[in-house]
Automatic annotation (TrEMBL):
Biased composition (Pro residues): 32-46
A Pfam family the protein falls into: CDT1_C
Protein name: DNA replication factor Cdt1 C-terminal domain-containing protein
Lineage: Eukaryota, Fungi, Dikarya, Basidiomycota, Agaricomycotina
Keywords: Cell cycle
Domain DNA replication factor Cdt1 C-terminal: 421-511
Domain of life: Eukaryota
Biased composition (Basic and acidic residues): 382-393
Family classification: Belongs to the Cdt1 family.
The keyword Cell cycle is assigned to this record: yes
Biased composition (Polar residues): 277-289, 348-358
Biased segments, Low complexity type: 319-334, 366-380, 397-411
Chain coiled-coil ranges: none
Location of region: Disordered: 1-50, 272-298, 319-428, 539-572
Length: 586
Protein backbone atom coordinates (compact mmCIF):
# COMPACT_ATOMS: atom_id res chain seq x y z
CA UNK A 1 0.00 0.00 0.00
CA UNK A 2 2.84 2.28 0.70
CA UNK A 3 4.16 1.88 -2.75
CA UNK A 4 0.73 2.60 -4.28
CA UNK A 5 0.28 5.73 -2.14
CA UNK A 6 3.63 7.04 -3.33
CA UNK A 7 2.59 6.52 -6.91
CA UNK A 8 -0.86 8.15 -6.47
CA UNK A 9 0.49 11.43 -5.13
CA UNK A 10 2.29 12.62 -8.30
CA UNK A 11 -0.70 11.65 -10.43
CA UNK A 12 -3.02 13.93 -8.48
CA UNK A 13 -0.44 16.74 -8.65
CA UNK A 14 -0.26 16.53 -12.43
CA UNK A 15 -4.02 16.64 -12.72
CA UNK A 16 -4.58 19.66 -10.42
CA UNK A 17 -1.47 21.83 -10.87
CA UNK A 18 -0.66 23.58 -14.21
CA UNK A 19 1.94 21.89 -16.31
CA UNK A 20 5.43 22.66 -15.20
CA UNK A 21 8.10 23.68 -17.73
CA UNK A 22 9.98 20.80 -19.22
CA UNK A 23 13.40 19.88 -17.94
CA UNK A 24 16.68 20.89 -19.49
CA UNK A 25 16.86 17.70 -21.48
CA UNK A 26 13.68 18.71 -23.41
CA UNK A 27 14.65 22.36 -24.04
CA UNK A 28 14.55 21.87 -27.79
CA UNK A 29 10.77 21.42 -27.72
CA UNK A 30 10.13 24.67 -25.83
CA UNK A 31 7.69 27.08 -27.54
CA UNK A 32 8.85 30.62 -28.44
CA UNK A 33 8.19 33.23 -25.75
CA UNK A 34 5.12 35.40 -26.07
CA UNK A 35 6.07 38.98 -27.11
CA UNK A 36 5.12 41.81 -24.83
CA UNK A 37 3.25 43.73 -26.12
CA UNK A 38 1.77 41.20 -28.56
CA UNK A 39 2.48 41.67 -32.25
CA UNK A 40 -0.12 43.49 -34.33
CA UNK A 41 -0.97 42.56 -37.91
CA UNK A 42 0.71 44.61 -40.68
CA UNK A 43 -1.42 47.73 -41.32
CA UNK A 44 -3.18 47.86 -44.63
CA UNK A 45 -4.93 50.85 -46.23
CA UNK A 46 -8.67 50.90 -45.71
CA UNK A 47 -10.83 49.39 -48.38
CA UNK A 48 -12.84 52.59 -48.68
CA UNK A 49 -9.80 54.33 -50.13
CA UNK A 50 -10.50 52.85 -53.56
CA UNK A 51 -14.26 53.11 -53.49
CA UNK A 52 -14.13 56.71 -54.65
CA UNK A 53 -12.39 55.75 -57.87
CA UNK A 54 -14.71 52.82 -58.41
CA UNK A 55 -17.76 55.08 -58.17
CA UNK A 56 -16.36 57.79 -60.47
CA UNK A 57 -17.42 56.21 -63.80
CA UNK A 58 -20.99 55.94 -62.59
CA UNK A 59 -20.99 59.58 -61.59
CA UNK A 60 -19.72 60.53 -65.04
CA UNK A 61 -22.51 58.56 -66.66
CA UNK A 62 -25.07 60.64 -64.75
CA UNK A 63 -24.04 63.80 -66.57
CA UNK A 64 -26.86 64.94 -68.82
CA UNK A 65 -26.33 65.04 -72.52
CA UNK A 66 -27.06 68.73 -72.61
CA UNK A 67 -24.02 69.64 -70.53
CA UNK A 68 -20.79 70.45 -72.33
CA UNK A 69 -17.85 68.09 -72.09
CA UNK A 70 -15.76 70.98 -70.74
CA UNK A 71 -17.83 70.94 -67.53
CA UNK A 72 -16.60 67.43 -66.64
CA UNK A 73 -14.12 67.43 -63.73
CA UNK A 74 -10.48 67.78 -64.69
CA UNK A 75 -8.71 64.65 -65.81
CA UNK A 76 -11.93 62.61 -66.23
CA UNK A 77 -11.57 61.23 -69.75
CA UNK A 78 -11.11 64.52 -71.67
CA UNK A 79 -9.01 64.08 -74.79
CA UNK A 80 -6.78 67.04 -75.58
CA UNK A 81 -5.23 67.64 -79.00
CA UNK A 82 -1.70 66.39 -79.41
CA UNK A 83 0.00 69.79 -79.22
CA UNK A 84 -1.98 70.78 -76.11
CA UNK A 85 -1.31 67.43 -74.44
CA UNK A 86 2.41 67.93 -75.11
CA UNK A 87 2.20 71.37 -73.54
CA UNK A 88 0.50 69.94 -70.45
CA UNK A 89 3.22 67.28 -70.14
CA UNK A 90 5.92 69.93 -70.41
CA UNK A 91 4.22 72.01 -67.71
CA UNK A 92 4.11 69.02 -65.36
CA UNK A 93 7.79 68.19 -65.99
CA UNK A 94 8.77 71.85 -65.63
CA UNK A 95 7.04 72.09 -62.27
CA UNK A 96 8.70 68.87 -61.03
CA UNK A 97 12.15 70.01 -62.19
CA UNK A 98 11.77 73.39 -60.49
CA UNK A 99 10.55 71.80 -57.24
CA UNK A 100 13.50 69.38 -57.30
CA UNK A 101 15.93 72.24 -57.78
CA UNK A 102 14.42 74.16 -54.88
CA UNK A 103 14.62 71.07 -52.66
CA UNK A 104 18.33 70.58 -53.41
CA UNK A 105 19.17 74.31 -53.47
CA UNK A 106 16.87 76.02 -50.95
CA UNK A 107 16.57 79.73 -51.71
CA UNK A 108 17.13 82.54 -49.23
CA UNK A 109 14.30 85.03 -48.85
CA UNK A 110 15.20 88.65 -49.56
CA UNK A 111 14.59 91.33 -46.90
CA UNK A 112 10.95 92.40 -46.77
CA UNK A 113 8.47 93.95 -44.41
CA UNK A 114 6.41 91.73 -42.05
CA UNK A 115 3.19 92.75 -43.79
CA UNK A 116 4.32 91.50 -47.22
CA UNK A 117 2.14 88.76 -48.69
CA UNK A 118 3.98 88.13 -51.98
CA UNK A 119 7.71 88.32 -52.73
CA UNK A 120 9.51 87.48 -56.01
CA UNK A 121 12.41 85.02 -55.99
CA UNK A 122 14.02 85.51 -59.41
CA UNK A 123 16.84 83.51 -61.01
CA UNK A 124 16.61 80.41 -58.81
CA UNK A 125 17.87 78.56 -61.88
CA UNK A 126 18.05 79.27 -65.60
CA UNK A 127 16.75 77.82 -68.83
CA UNK A 128 20.06 76.15 -69.78
CA UNK A 129 20.25 74.23 -66.49
CA UNK A 130 16.63 73.12 -66.30
CA UNK A 131 16.17 72.25 -69.96
CA UNK A 132 17.85 68.83 -69.84
CA UNK A 133 15.87 67.77 -66.75
CA UNK A 134 12.55 68.74 -68.34
CA UNK A 135 13.34 66.92 -71.58
CA UNK A 136 14.36 63.73 -69.75
CA UNK A 137 11.22 63.79 -67.61
CA UNK A 138 8.74 64.48 -70.40
CA UNK A 139 10.52 62.82 -73.37
CA UNK A 140 9.64 65.95 -75.32
CA UNK A 141 11.64 68.78 -76.81
CA UNK A 142 11.84 71.82 -74.55
CA UNK A 143 13.12 74.89 -76.37
CA UNK A 144 12.57 78.62 -76.29
CA UNK A 145 9.33 78.32 -78.31
CA UNK A 146 7.90 75.83 -75.80
CA UNK A 147 8.86 78.12 -72.92
CA UNK A 148 7.11 81.00 -74.70
CA UNK A 149 3.92 78.96 -75.08
CA UNK A 150 4.00 77.95 -71.41
CA UNK A 151 4.51 81.58 -70.39
CA UNK A 152 1.59 82.64 -72.58
CA UNK A 153 -0.74 80.16 -70.82
CA UNK A 154 0.57 81.22 -67.40
CA UNK A 155 -0.21 84.87 -68.06
CA UNK A 156 -3.49 84.32 -69.95
CA UNK A 157 -6.63 85.57 -68.22
CA UNK A 158 -9.03 83.39 -70.23
CA UNK A 159 -10.30 86.06 -72.62
CA UNK A 160 -9.97 85.66 -76.39
CA UNK A 161 -6.75 87.24 -77.66
CA UNK A 162 -7.07 90.49 -79.57
CA UNK A 163 -6.50 90.29 -83.29
CA UNK A 164 -3.77 92.47 -84.71
CA UNK A 165 -4.94 95.20 -87.05
CA UNK A 166 -3.54 94.87 -90.54
CA UNK A 167 -2.27 98.18 -91.89
CA UNK A 168 -3.39 99.09 -95.37
CA UNK A 169 -0.06 100.71 -96.17
CA UNK A 170 2.60 97.93 -96.31
CA UNK A 171 5.41 100.50 -96.30
CA UNK A 172 4.38 101.99 -92.98
CA UNK A 173 6.79 101.01 -90.22
CA UNK A 174 4.77 99.96 -87.18
CA UNK A 175 5.97 100.91 -83.75
CA UNK A 176 7.77 98.14 -81.88
CA UNK A 177 5.91 96.66 -78.94
CA UNK A 178 7.45 97.16 -75.54
CA UNK A 179 8.92 93.89 -74.25
CA UNK A 180 8.64 93.60 -70.46
CA UNK A 181 11.74 92.89 -68.41
CA UNK A 182 9.94 90.16 -66.46
CA UNK A 183 7.12 87.72 -67.15
CA UNK A 184 5.09 86.33 -64.23
CA UNK A 185 1.98 84.21 -63.92
CA UNK A 186 0.62 81.27 -61.89
CA UNK A 187 3.51 81.59 -59.45
CA UNK A 188 6.29 81.41 -62.09
CA UNK A 189 8.74 84.21 -62.92
CA UNK A 190 11.00 84.66 -65.98
CA UNK A 191 13.72 87.34 -66.03
CA UNK A 192 16.91 87.90 -68.08
CA UNK A 193 20.16 86.67 -66.55
CA UNK A 194 23.60 85.49 -67.58
CA UNK A 195 25.56 82.34 -66.82
CA UNK A 196 28.48 80.22 -68.07
CA UNK A 197 27.91 77.61 -70.75
CA UNK A 198 29.65 74.24 -71.02
CA UNK A 199 32.67 75.87 -72.69
CA UNK A 200 33.08 78.43 -69.90
CA UNK A 201 31.88 81.37 -71.97
CA UNK A 202 29.56 84.01 -70.54
CA UNK A 203 26.16 83.82 -72.20
CA UNK A 204 22.80 85.46 -71.57
CA UNK A 205 19.72 83.32 -70.98
CA UNK A 206 16.35 83.40 -69.19
CA UNK A 207 16.30 83.03 -65.44
CA UNK A 208 13.57 80.89 -63.88
CA UNK A 209 12.10 81.92 -60.52
CA UNK A 210 8.89 81.89 -58.53
CA UNK A 211 6.51 84.30 -56.83
CA UNK A 212 6.11 83.18 -53.24
CA UNK A 213 2.93 83.86 -51.29
CA UNK A 214 3.40 84.54 -47.60
CA UNK A 215 1.13 84.81 -44.62
CA UNK A 216 1.24 87.96 -42.55
CA UNK A 217 3.90 87.59 -39.88
CA UNK A 218 5.05 84.22 -41.15
CA UNK A 219 8.66 85.26 -41.66
CA UNK A 220 10.93 87.02 -39.22
CA UNK A 221 14.24 88.80 -39.42
CA UNK A 222 17.06 86.74 -37.96
CA UNK A 223 19.83 88.70 -36.22
CA UNK A 224 23.23 87.61 -34.98
CA UNK A 225 22.96 85.71 -31.74
CA UNK A 226 19.26 84.95 -32.24
CA UNK A 227 18.16 87.95 -30.16
CA UNK A 228 15.94 90.72 -31.37
CA UNK A 229 18.33 93.39 -30.16
CA UNK A 230 21.44 91.88 -31.79
CA UNK A 231 23.62 93.61 -34.32
CA UNK A 232 23.67 92.67 -37.97
CA UNK A 233 21.20 90.91 -40.20
CA UNK A 234 21.36 87.24 -41.18
CA UNK A 235 18.37 87.34 -43.54
CA UNK A 236 14.73 86.39 -43.29
CA UNK A 237 13.79 83.20 -41.44
CA UNK A 238 10.65 81.11 -41.40
CA UNK A 239 10.15 80.85 -45.16
CA UNK A 240 10.44 77.08 -45.48
CA UNK A 241 6.74 76.69 -44.81
CA UNK A 242 5.90 79.00 -47.70
CA UNK A 243 8.29 77.12 -50.01
CA UNK A 244 6.65 73.85 -48.96
CA UNK A 245 3.22 75.22 -49.74
CA UNK A 246 4.37 76.36 -53.18
CA UNK A 247 5.77 72.92 -54.00
CA UNK A 248 2.66 71.21 -52.63
CA UNK A 249 0.36 73.32 -54.80
CA UNK A 250 1.81 71.83 -57.98
CA UNK A 251 -1.33 69.80 -58.65
CA UNK A 252 -3.50 72.87 -58.15
CA UNK A 253 -1.42 74.79 -60.68
CA UNK A 254 -1.67 71.87 -63.08
CA UNK A 255 -5.47 71.84 -62.77
CA UNK A 256 -5.54 75.57 -63.44
CA UNK A 257 -3.28 75.07 -66.45
CA UNK A 258 -5.62 72.37 -67.79
CA UNK A 259 -8.64 74.63 -67.30
CA UNK A 260 -6.95 77.28 -69.42
CA UNK A 261 -6.27 74.74 -72.16
CA UNK A 262 -9.92 73.67 -72.05
CA UNK A 263 -10.94 77.32 -72.25
CA UNK A 264 -8.73 77.68 -75.32
CA UNK A 265 -10.47 74.70 -76.91
CA UNK A 266 -13.89 76.15 -76.04
CA UNK A 267 -13.05 79.50 -77.61
CA UNK A 268 -12.11 77.80 -80.90
CA UNK A 269 -15.21 75.60 -81.15
CA UNK A 270 -14.12 72.43 -79.37
CA UNK A 271 -12.67 69.20 -80.70
CA UNK A 272 -14.56 67.05 -83.17
CA UNK A 273 -14.25 63.50 -81.80
CA UNK A 274 -14.13 60.71 -84.36
CA UNK A 275 -16.05 57.49 -84.06
CA UNK A 276 -14.10 54.62 -82.58
CA UNK A 277 -14.83 52.25 -85.46
CA UNK A 278 -13.84 54.80 -88.10
CA UNK A 279 -10.21 54.60 -89.17
CA UNK A 280 -8.39 57.92 -89.49
CA UNK A 281 -7.77 59.17 -93.00
CA UNK A 282 -5.46 61.93 -94.19
CA UNK A 283 -8.44 64.24 -94.69
CA UNK A 284 -9.84 63.76 -91.20
CA UNK A 285 -6.39 64.08 -89.67
CA UNK A 286 -5.72 67.39 -91.41
CA UNK A 287 -9.15 68.72 -90.45
CA UNK A 288 -8.61 67.76 -86.82
CA UNK A 289 -5.22 69.50 -86.74
CA UNK A 290 -6.61 72.71 -88.15
CA UNK A 291 -9.52 72.80 -85.71
CA UNK A 292 -7.60 73.99 -82.64
CA UNK A 293 -4.78 76.46 -83.35
CA UNK A 294 -1.54 76.24 -81.38
CA UNK A 295 -0.89 78.39 -78.36
CA UNK A 296 0.66 81.75 -79.32
CA UNK A 297 4.24 82.66 -78.45
CA UNK A 298 4.70 85.19 -75.67
CA UNK A 299 7.64 87.62 -76.14
CA UNK A 300 10.12 86.87 -73.37
CA UNK A 301 12.44 89.49 -71.84
CA UNK A 302 15.08 90.73 -74.26
CA UNK A 303 18.54 89.19 -73.94
CA UNK A 304 21.61 91.23 -74.94
CA UNK A 305 24.02 89.56 -77.32
CA UNK A 306 27.05 87.85 -75.79
CA UNK A 307 29.86 89.90 -77.37
CA UNK A 308 32.76 91.88 -76.01
CA UNK A 309 31.63 95.12 -77.61
CA UNK A 310 30.14 97.53 -75.08
CA UNK A 311 27.48 98.70 -77.52
CA UNK A 312 26.10 95.17 -77.84
CA UNK A 313 25.61 94.79 -74.11
CA UNK A 314 23.22 96.53 -71.76
CA UNK A 315 24.71 99.91 -72.65
CA UNK A 316 23.29 102.00 -75.46
CA UNK A 317 24.78 104.87 -77.38
CA UNK A 318 23.35 108.08 -76.05
CA UNK A 319 22.83 110.98 -78.41
CA UNK A 320 23.90 114.48 -77.54
CA UNK A 321 21.22 116.64 -76.00
CA UNK A 322 20.04 119.90 -77.63
CA UNK A 323 21.32 121.91 -74.65
CA UNK A 324 24.94 120.92 -75.30
CA UNK A 325 25.50 124.14 -77.28
CA UNK A 326 25.35 122.82 -80.85
CA UNK A 327 22.81 124.27 -83.23
CA UNK A 328 21.22 120.91 -84.10
CA UNK A 329 21.14 117.74 -81.98
CA UNK A 330 23.36 114.91 -83.14
CA UNK A 331 21.48 111.92 -84.55
CA UNK A 332 22.52 108.52 -83.26
CA UNK A 333 24.35 106.34 -85.73
CA UNK A 334 22.67 103.24 -87.11
CA UNK A 335 23.88 100.24 -85.17
CA UNK A 336 24.05 96.83 -86.80
CA UNK A 337 23.53 93.46 -85.18
CA UNK A 338 27.22 93.22 -84.25
CA UNK A 339 27.18 96.55 -82.42
CA UNK A 340 29.10 98.51 -85.11
CA UNK A 341 27.72 101.35 -87.19
CA UNK A 342 26.49 100.47 -90.66
CA UNK A 343 29.05 101.92 -93.12
CA UNK A 344 26.53 101.97 -96.00
CA UNK A 345 24.11 104.36 -94.31
CA UNK A 346 24.64 107.97 -95.36
CA UNK A 347 24.47 110.30 -92.39
CA UNK A 348 22.96 113.75 -93.10
CA UNK A 349 25.08 116.83 -92.72
CA UNK A 350 24.77 118.32 -89.26
CA UNK A 351 24.72 121.92 -90.53
CA UNK A 352 23.66 123.09 -94.00
CA UNK A 353 26.32 124.42 -96.31
CA UNK A 354 24.55 127.73 -96.81
CA UNK A 355 24.58 128.52 -93.12
CA UNK A 356 28.29 127.73 -93.01
CA UNK A 357 28.99 130.14 -95.85
CA UNK A 358 26.82 132.89 -94.38
CA UNK A 359 28.43 132.62 -90.93
CA UNK A 360 32.10 131.79 -91.44
CA UNK A 361 33.06 132.75 -87.88
CA UNK A 362 31.62 131.26 -84.71
CA UNK A 363 30.68 132.91 -81.51
CA UNK A 364 33.25 132.31 -78.72
CA UNK A 365 30.47 131.16 -76.39
CA UNK A 366 29.26 128.55 -78.89
CA UNK A 367 32.83 127.38 -79.48
CA UNK A 368 33.34 126.95 -75.74
CA UNK A 369 30.11 125.01 -75.49
CA UNK A 370 31.18 122.79 -78.41
CA UNK A 371 34.53 122.08 -76.77
CA UNK A 372 32.72 121.14 -73.55
CA UNK A 373 30.45 118.74 -75.45
CA UNK A 374 33.49 117.14 -77.13
CA UNK A 375 35.18 116.68 -73.79
CA UNK A 376 32.00 115.15 -72.41
CA UNK A 377 31.84 112.71 -75.33
CA UNK A 378 35.36 111.45 -74.66
CA UNK A 379 34.01 109.03 -72.05
CA UNK A 380 31.12 107.91 -74.23
CA UNK A 381 30.76 104.35 -75.47
CA UNK A 382 31.60 105.29 -79.05
CA UNK A 383 34.82 107.04 -78.02
CA UNK A 384 35.88 104.09 -75.89
CA UNK A 385 35.16 101.71 -78.75
CA UNK A 386 37.28 103.77 -81.16
CA UNK A 387 40.13 103.95 -78.64
CA UNK A 388 40.01 100.18 -78.18
CA UNK A 389 40.20 99.64 -81.95
CA UNK A 390 43.27 101.89 -82.15
CA UNK A 391 44.96 99.99 -79.31
CA UNK A 392 44.31 96.67 -81.07
CA UNK A 393 45.85 97.99 -84.31
CA UNK A 394 48.91 99.30 -82.46
CA UNK A 395 49.35 95.98 -80.67
CA UNK A 396 49.18 94.05 -83.94
CA UNK A 397 51.80 96.32 -85.51
CA UNK A 398 54.11 95.95 -82.51
CA UNK A 399 53.76 92.15 -82.54
CA UNK A 400 54.78 92.03 -86.20
CA UNK A 401 57.92 94.09 -85.55
CA UNK A 402 58.80 92.59 -82.15
CA UNK A 403 61.90 90.76 -83.43
CA UNK A 404 64.74 92.86 -84.91
CA UNK A 405 65.51 91.98 -88.54
CA UNK A 406 68.52 89.76 -89.05
CA UNK A 407 71.45 91.14 -91.02
CA UNK A 408 71.48 89.37 -94.37
CA UNK A 409 73.49 89.63 -97.52
CA UNK A 410 72.73 92.58 -99.83
CA UNK A 411 70.92 90.35 -102.33
CA UNK A 412 68.70 88.75 -99.67
CA UNK A 413 65.17 90.12 -99.40
CA UNK A 414 63.71 90.27 -95.91
CA UNK A 415 60.24 88.68 -95.59
CA UNK A 416 57.93 89.29 -92.66
CA UNK A 417 57.31 86.41 -90.30
CA UNK A 418 53.98 84.90 -91.20
CA UNK A 419 53.30 82.26 -88.59
CA UNK A 420 54.43 80.97 -85.24
CA UNK A 421 56.56 78.14 -86.62
CA UNK A 422 58.75 80.50 -88.63
CA UNK A 423 59.18 82.67 -85.53
CA UNK A 424 60.37 79.66 -83.53
CA UNK A 425 62.81 78.72 -86.30
CA UNK A 426 64.28 82.22 -86.29
CA UNK A 427 64.70 82.18 -82.52
CA UNK A 428 66.38 78.77 -82.66
CA UNK A 429 68.75 79.99 -85.40
CA UNK A 430 69.67 83.11 -83.43
CA UNK A 431 70.41 81.09 -80.32
CA UNK A 432 72.72 78.82 -82.36
CA UNK A 433 74.49 81.82 -83.87
CA UNK A 434 75.02 83.37 -80.43
CA UNK A 435 77.14 80.41 -79.24
CA UNK A 436 78.86 79.82 -82.57
CA UNK A 437 81.81 82.12 -81.77
CA UNK A 438 82.89 80.16 -78.68
CA UNK A 439 82.45 76.89 -80.58
CA UNK A 440 84.68 78.21 -83.39
CA UNK A 441 87.42 79.06 -80.89
CA UNK A 442 87.15 75.58 -79.36
CA UNK A 443 87.40 73.94 -82.81
CA UNK A 444 90.47 76.02 -83.61
CA UNK A 445 92.11 74.92 -80.35
CA UNK A 446 91.13 71.33 -81.16
CA UNK A 447 92.93 71.34 -84.51
CA UNK A 448 95.97 73.41 -83.41
CA UNK A 449 99.10 71.65 -81.95
CA UNK A 450 99.85 71.91 -78.24
CA UNK A 451 102.44 74.26 -76.81
CA UNK A 452 104.67 71.35 -75.74
CA UNK A 453 104.89 70.00 -79.26
CA UNK A 454 105.82 73.41 -80.58
CA UNK A 455 108.60 73.81 -78.02
CA UNK A 456 109.95 70.27 -78.56
CA UNK A 457 109.95 70.65 -82.33
CA UNK A 458 111.97 73.85 -82.19
CA UNK A 459 113.01 75.28 -85.47
CA UNK A 460 110.13 73.61 -87.31
CA UNK A 461 106.82 75.08 -88.34
CA UNK A 462 103.93 73.99 -86.16
CA UNK A 463 101.98 71.07 -87.60
CA UNK A 464 98.32 70.28 -87.08
CA UNK A 465 97.33 67.65 -84.60
CA UNK A 466 95.07 65.69 -86.97
CA UNK A 467 94.05 66.34 -90.53
CA UNK A 468 90.40 65.36 -89.89
CA UNK A 469 88.21 64.61 -86.88
CA UNK A 470 84.92 62.75 -86.74
CA UNK A 471 81.91 65.03 -86.44
CA UNK A 472 80.46 63.01 -83.55
CA UNK A 473 83.77 63.08 -81.67
CA UNK A 474 84.12 66.83 -82.17
CA UNK A 475 80.52 67.33 -81.00
CA UNK A 476 81.22 65.39 -77.79
CA UNK A 477 84.27 67.55 -77.09
CA UNK A 478 82.24 70.71 -77.74
CA UNK A 479 79.53 69.54 -75.31
CA UNK A 480 82.12 68.95 -72.57
CA UNK A 481 83.93 72.27 -73.12
CA UNK A 482 80.87 74.50 -73.64
CA UNK A 483 80.25 77.25 -71.11
CA UNK A 484 76.48 76.71 -71.27
CA UNK A 485 74.97 73.21 -71.16
CA UNK A 486 73.97 72.03 -74.65
CA UNK A 487 72.94 68.68 -76.06
CA UNK A 488 74.82 66.54 -78.55
CA UNK A 489 72.30 67.34 -81.29
CA UNK A 490 72.72 71.09 -80.71
CA UNK A 491 76.49 70.72 -80.88
CA UNK A 492 76.26 68.84 -84.19
CA UNK A 493 73.87 71.43 -85.65
CA UNK A 494 76.22 74.23 -84.52
CA UNK A 495 79.21 72.57 -86.22
CA UNK A 496 77.16 72.06 -89.39
CA UNK A 497 76.10 75.73 -89.39
CA UNK A 498 79.73 76.77 -88.84
CA UNK A 499 80.75 74.76 -91.91
CA UNK A 500 77.98 76.36 -93.98
CA UNK A 501 78.70 79.95 -92.94
CA UNK A 502 82.51 79.76 -92.89
CA UNK A 503 83.78 77.20 -95.44
CA UNK A 504 87.15 78.98 -95.41
CA UNK A 505 87.50 78.09 -91.71
CA UNK A 506 86.03 74.60 -91.43
CA UNK A 507 84.76 72.08 -93.98
CA UNK A 508 83.01 68.74 -93.79
CA UNK A 509 83.73 65.62 -95.80
CA UNK A 510 82.07 62.21 -96.02
CA UNK A 511 84.57 59.37 -95.64
CA UNK A 512 83.34 55.83 -95.18
CA UNK A 513 79.74 56.99 -94.79
CA UNK A 514 80.77 59.18 -91.85
CA UNK A 515 81.05 62.96 -91.55
CA UNK A 516 84.53 64.29 -90.87
CA UNK A 517 85.62 67.83 -90.05
CA UNK A 518 88.70 69.30 -91.73
CA UNK A 519 90.40 72.66 -91.28
CA UNK A 520 92.38 74.15 -94.16
CA UNK A 521 96.16 74.32 -93.62
CA UNK A 522 96.24 78.05 -94.34
CA UNK A 523 93.81 78.62 -91.49
CA UNK A 524 95.69 76.44 -89.03
CA UNK A 525 99.27 77.52 -89.89
CA UNK A 526 99.30 81.20 -90.86
CA UNK A 527 102.63 82.85 -91.70
CA UNK A 528 104.53 83.65 -88.51
CA UNK A 529 106.17 87.06 -87.99
CA UNK A 530 109.55 85.26 -87.56
CA UNK A 531 110.41 82.10 -89.47
CA UNK A 532 112.70 80.74 -86.74
CA UNK A 533 111.10 80.61 -83.31
CA UNK A 534 114.29 79.21 -81.68
CA UNK A 535 116.27 82.14 -82.91
CA UNK A 536 113.88 84.52 -81.33
CA UNK A 537 114.11 82.74 -78.02
CA UNK A 538 117.96 82.43 -77.99
CA UNK A 539 118.68 86.02 -79.10
CA UNK A 540 116.45 88.28 -77.09
CA UNK A 541 116.59 92.00 -77.92
CA UNK A 542 118.78 94.35 -75.94
CA UNK A 543 115.91 96.65 -75.12
CA UNK A 544 114.57 96.02 -71.60
CA UNK A 545 111.27 94.15 -71.50
CA UNK A 546 109.50 96.98 -69.69
CA UNK A 547 109.68 99.34 -72.69
CA UNK A 548 106.20 100.43 -73.63
CA UNK A 549 107.14 100.86 -77.31
CA UNK A 550 108.18 97.22 -77.82
CA UNK A 551 105.89 95.44 -75.34
CA UNK A 552 103.21 94.63 -77.90
CA UNK A 553 105.67 93.18 -80.37
CA UNK A 554 107.40 91.05 -77.73
CA UNK A 555 104.05 89.62 -76.59
CA UNK A 556 103.08 88.79 -80.14
CA UNK A 557 106.42 87.16 -80.94
CA UNK A 558 106.66 85.12 -77.73
CA UNK A 559 103.08 83.91 -77.92
CA UNK A 560 102.67 80.27 -78.92
CA UNK A 561 100.45 79.02 -81.72
CA UNK A 562 97.78 77.88 -79.21
CA UNK A 563 97.74 81.00 -77.06
CA UNK A 564 94.75 83.31 -76.74
CA UNK A 565 96.62 86.09 -78.46
CA UNK A 566 97.05 84.10 -81.65
CA UNK A 567 93.43 82.86 -81.38
CA UNK A 568 92.14 86.41 -81.54
CA UNK A 569 94.53 87.56 -84.24
CA UNK A 570 95.18 84.58 -86.50
CA UNK A 571 93.55 81.47 -87.85
CA UNK A 572 90.63 83.17 -89.60
CA UNK A 573 88.74 83.73 -86.33
CA UNK A 574 88.38 87.42 -87.03
CA UNK A 575 86.58 86.68 -90.28
CA UNK A 576 84.47 84.07 -88.50
CA UNK A 577 83.42 86.57 -85.82
CA UNK A 578 82.60 89.19 -88.44
CA UNK A 579 80.51 86.70 -90.37
CA UNK A 580 78.58 85.64 -87.27
CA UNK A 581 77.92 89.24 -86.20
CA UNK A 582 76.75 90.07 -89.69
CA UNK A 583 74.24 87.24 -89.49
CA UNK A 584 73.03 88.45 -86.10
CA UNK A 585 72.55 91.96 -87.46
CA UNK A 586 74.97 93.61 -85.03
Amino acid sequence: MNTQGVQATPRKRKAVDPPTPSSGSKSKRRAPPTPNPPLAPFPTPPATRHRKFELEPSSISLVSSGESSLDVPIGRGIDLPTHLQTLLTLHRSFNLALSLHMATHPPVLPPHSPSTTRIPLPNLTNFLNIRETVERTSNRRFGISELQRLAWVWTWDGTPPEEKKVEENPFLVSGSEEIPMRVSGMGYLITPTRTLDTNGRRVYTHGIGIELELKVGETRQVLHGGNEGGLGNKGQGGGMGALGRWSGNGEIREEEFLKKLEKWIEIHGGVEHQEKNQLPTPSTTSNQRSTIPPIPLLPLPHLPSSTLLPSANLFTISSSSPSSGSSTPRKPSTVGPSGLADPFVLQPRSTPLSSTLDHPTEDPESSNATSKSKSANINSVEARRQAMAERIKARSRSSQSSLPPLGQSPGYSLKPISNVSSTQEELRRRSTLSRLESIAEGVWMLFSPSHSQSTNNSGLSPSRKRRAILLTEAAEIVVKSSKTPISLAEAQSSLTMLCELCPFFLTTKVIGRQDWLEMPSSTLCPPSPSNNLDRVVLNPPVTPPGSPSRSGGKKAELAGPASLGRVRRQGGLREVRERIRRELGE
